[in-house]
Amino acid sequence: MNIALLLVIIIAVVLAIVGGLNTALNWLLWVALIVGVIALIAFLFRVISGSRR
What we know:
Helix content: over 70%
Protein name: DUF2207 domain-containing protein
Organism: Microbacterium schleiferi
Radius of gyration: 23 Å
Keywords: Membrane, Transmembrane, Transmembrane helix
Transmembrane segments: 26-48
């Protein structure tokens, strides 16, 4: 196999993996923000309503 062709294939695979990781991390960032907002709302609701033990 030609060395240049092999190099191009390796670079393409690495870029595909990095692009996929970037998309996954972006998605996880949005999920973390949504979960954080829900936790903040639950915390504020608990503080405002008072803890009844």
